[in-house]
Specification:
single chain; 577 residues; alpha+beta; Heat Shock Protein 90; five-stranded antiparallel beta sheet; HATPase_dom
Length: 577
Amino acid sequence: MKSQFFLKDSSIFKKIMAAFLAALLPLMAITWMINEKGSENIRSEISESVLNTTRFYLDSLDKEADRISRYLPNYVMDRDLMEIATTGNDISYYERARKILDIQRRLELMKNSSPFIKETRAYIPVIERTILSNKFETFLNEQEYASMQQYAKLYEEPFIYWNDRLFISMQYPINTVKNPIYIVAVELSTNKIKETLSQIGSSRGGQSVLLNLERGWDIESDMDPALLEQMKSFASDKRELQKDEGYETLLYDGKRFLTVYKYSKLWNSYSITCIPEEKILGSLHMYRTLFWWACALAVGIVVFFSYFLIRFIYRPLMKLVHSFRRVQQNRLEPIVIDRGADEFGYLYQAFNDTIRSLKTLIEENYEQQIRNQRSELKRLQSQINPHFLYNCFFVLCRLIKSENQKEKAYQFCLYIGQYFQFITRNDEDDIPLELEVNHSRTYVDMQSICYGDRIQVQFEGDVPDIHVPRLILQPIIENAYKHALGNMIQQGELWVHSERVDHVFTIYVEDNGRSITDEEIEQLQKRLRQSSNRMEETTGIMNVHRRIQLRYGEEYGITVSRSALGGLQVKINLSAN
């Protein structure tokens, strides 16, 4: 669900790429699963095949060893062997030679009975000779003879491993602990055992080993010593887990090996065969390589598809989106048409036509607003000037008649000049706020001469460096003098202050007049809210309010409320940007 919401708010490019990958990735995943499943099936079938082969050859070794062990007593109980071992040199040389030849023939017959027998021999200590199947004049190797005795075996399996040679022996008498009369031993052919083991996995490039962990011997054919040590560790793990047979995949020298193992109770040994996995899965490795090439090709396709989307769809679309954003910022700039007669070329042309139409409409509307604004300003000037001019000359005449008011008359003339110089300067619609405040101070200074100390005026607050429409503060102050302070008997107060909150700069004009009621304030506020729908001729607050809204927007302008001084509070909201 989160991914759906993410795509819902994403760009078209992301959505198309997501759809493309949603179609491509499952196909790649299915291909990978088919390849891996095929590899696993082939690995399992070959492992079972090798395990069956291991069972067969190990069973053959078991049967041969068991057959040799069961037939060995028949040769141990040979009468000629007993006679020579007991009489020794007491019989004649001829008789002894004849019996030895008979023994040799029987030993040779035993040797030829199995391809796994390398040599058969009889150890006779009384004559200090070892009789072989084809040789008589041999000496008795004391160490070898001692190794063949039963007391040297402390384990159940019939095999004796001595000097890298494997034997099955039996002594006479059987129950003698030491110094038997003679011993008959069969030396097994380790080469034949190696040859048998090699047949298990040699066709697939594998190597086999027969490991006896308790006696510490092994029979293997040219196996890497490091690999052999790993096989010993592997066999130890299986013995601890009491697992007799199975197969696993091991990692050695950066390569994977299929390892098949089988335990023989008779030999007390593990037969382990290691086959390189690349020999087994050669064709599938080729398919895996082809799969990675296909992945690389898919990446190339994704890159090409992404480049195609970005070049022919995403960039033109973003170009159109950025153009719309510029329109939102009141930047009506046409798009450079660099497309042919395709869909984007049509959209670009339609966008440029729309921009031209908007420009025409905006210019007409803006010019109309400017004309209205200037018309209201001129009307305000024309309405204010005659009335105020009459009052000014009346006050000036009064001051001139008075003998001790000539200095005030002179100052008043300066104020009148500054005032009407500001009023009659029509070349600029917007002026610095500092000039507007200075003009208002000039007006207040003129009124101070008229009213004397009866009205106290206080200006507070910083004046930011911004431009505002002309005559937005002085008419409000004039309105306070005219309707609130001019006719007051008690002391009048006028407080002009300001504050800035974020991007809004507010000028407060407050008085302590008592003539306005709460109902009248509410009615005035209502008229201000509906000023855009009222076309009557008016001056003062309504005029200033409309011109501010024309300049900055409907969220700015004038609001009125009850002042903390008791009279009217007028808030002039301006943009500080």
